[in-house]
Hints:
The protein is α/β, with parallel strands linked by helices. It has helices at residues 54-62, 73-76, 81-98, 102-105, 125-134, 151-160, 176-188, 241-244, 247-259, 273-282, and strands spanning 2-18, 21-34, 39-44, 118-120, 140-144, 165-169, 191-195, 215-217, 236-239, 263-266, 288-289, 307-308, 311-312.
Amino acid sequence: MQVDVTHDVFKLAQVFTIARGSRTEAKVLTVKLGDGEHTGWGECVPYARYNESLQSVTDEIMGLPKDFSRQDLYDLLPAGAARNAVDCALWDLEAKRAGKRVWELAGLPAPKSEITAYTLSLDTPKAMQEQAEKHAFRPLLKIKLGTPDDMPRLEAVRAGAPKSSIIVDANEGWSADVYADLAPHLVRLGVELVEQPLPAGEDHALLGMQRPVPVCADESCHDRKSLANLKGKYDVVNIKLDKTGGLTEALALRDAALAQGYEVMVGCMVGSSLAMAPATLVAQGASVVDLDGPLLLAEDRKEPLIFDHAGVHPPSAALWG
């Protein structure tokens, strides 16, 4: 099997800021697997939070043996960006070989469009209110927060988009005290979900704490192995393919989480439509879908996903799967 990895850069439509910093472009790895007749494609976003870089993930992928299957990947690569891109490329390759769509191979119903959140990046209250006003037509907004001074931002966004549903992502930026102080105000402002309020290594503080708004594990949840440490802390798990290590584990994590009583959110890193395409299968029927990566870009793949009033649509065969 021929394995090719390229470093690709997609400019963002505007500066994107979270509690950890800002960026003006999305740097991704595109993986191409060829068998001489068919080619499978996958994309991943190496994430420094998980000690990944473009080079380290490239090295992981290029270190694979010449011949391997999707089942072999669990032994060859850990959960993370490298395995994600290769796993998704293998699914694409298998679908092209079989002349079927990926969901048929996986035994899944044909996917439908799903309403997705649109993310407002961290900024001043005034700027965030302006962002909210601009996107107030969207049914679901996600707010990037994660500082000790987030109340004015929350108030500003709610004022700017009074009819939109709102979820909040603190990106591990709050302490237990800050979260406890903010919780009643989240209820008052109609926030429907709080994503990763505390650092993953300190989320034991959530045990026994009142959760008037459902709390979602993001950085605390990677794959099925993570579930054992979430009990009593979280109500929802955020499934991202760059954390699970691909579509295969993402589907298994979804089933395991639902079986254990968690609700499911399906999220993404900031990447192109190629990265979102496999996640649309996992997102079917999820409580929250957050696959807006392409909406944040100034440029995208040649065969992009379609986003409209019905949400994000499944990929065309020309894009993936």
